[in-house]
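Action item from last meeting closed. Structure (271 res):
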């Protein structure tokens, strides 16, 4: 396990929860690798027809078991096993595999997301890409930090591109725009952007936070999809909001950008 080795004094932030979030994201994410690109599992369909596998379930269970030991009074919300109420001011919001469709297709652009809220406000976030060895961690007021493999931690920063016409727009799945009646917005974003790619899910937000993309848009999302994302984007110098421009994770959609193109994107989404 990672044992919370973070740059500077960050391991102590939020009473050690930042270091634990990194620890748990790596623990859970690495557990998925024994199934990745194998035929040792079955794909089930949930009520919304989205896929789930034993890799998703085992990874979330690992996180829950560790949290029960380390922070038994904290609340937990996960994609696969729902909510556990807590007694403290903290809640852990986790997605063991964000991008299960990529995972079952053998595409390495899936992530493990671990977020922490304090009194309902996102304060800590980790995005880990286990198949590629990339990880980014952030805590509000303490910056965002990125590393690849065994390299040293580096401060993560968004790009300085100030117009979509020179930028990369990423999203998870084009037909999610259709599902909410927003195909025109997708077409307009694609036309306005220099490059459009569907390198989405948590990986898309990581690209924004490390300056490789300018905006990631989720037409449909849940709190576990973006709770970890908000601190990461904000502390890398960008902006995260819902489509109405509110800094919220529970309204069903999301936009993470370098900040400079945010209003340009919102104007398109709100038309």
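Sequence:
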């Amino acid at each position: 396990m990672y044992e919370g080795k973070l740059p500077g004094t960050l391991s102590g932030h939020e009473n050690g929860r930042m270091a634990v979030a990194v620890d748990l994201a790596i623990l859970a994410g690495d557990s998925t690798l024994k199934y990745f690109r194998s035929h040792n599992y079955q794909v089930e369909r949930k009520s919304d027809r989205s896929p789930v596998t034993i890799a998703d379930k085992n990874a979330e269970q690992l996180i829950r078991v560790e949290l029960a030991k380390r922070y038994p009074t904290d609340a937990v919300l996960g994609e696969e096993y729902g909510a556990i109420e807590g007694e403290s001011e903290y809640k852990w919001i986790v997605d063991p595999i964000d991008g299960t469709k990529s995972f079952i297709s053998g595409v390495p652009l899936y992530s493990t997301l671990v977020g922490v809220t304090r009194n309902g406000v996102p304060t800590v976030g980790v995005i880990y890409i286990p198949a590629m060895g990339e990880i980014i961690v952030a805590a509000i007021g303490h910056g965002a930090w990125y590393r690849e493999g065994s390299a040293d931690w580096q401060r993560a920063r968004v790009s300085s591109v100030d117009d979509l016409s020179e930028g990369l727009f990423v999203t998870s799945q084009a037909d999610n725009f259709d599902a909410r009646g927003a195909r025109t917005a997708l077409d307009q974003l694609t036309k306005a952007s220099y490059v459009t790619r569907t390198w989405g899910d948590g990986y898309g937000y990581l690209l924004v936070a490390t300056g490789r993309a300018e905006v990631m848009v989720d037409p449909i999302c849940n709190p576990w999809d973006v709770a970890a994302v908000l601190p990461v984007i904000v502390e890398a110098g960008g902006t995260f909001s819902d489509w109405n421009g509110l800094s919220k994770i529970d309204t069903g959609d999301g936009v993470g950008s370098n900040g400079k193109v945010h209003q340009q994107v919102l104007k398109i989404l709100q038309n």
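Note appended to the action item: The chain has two domains: 10-155, 164-269.
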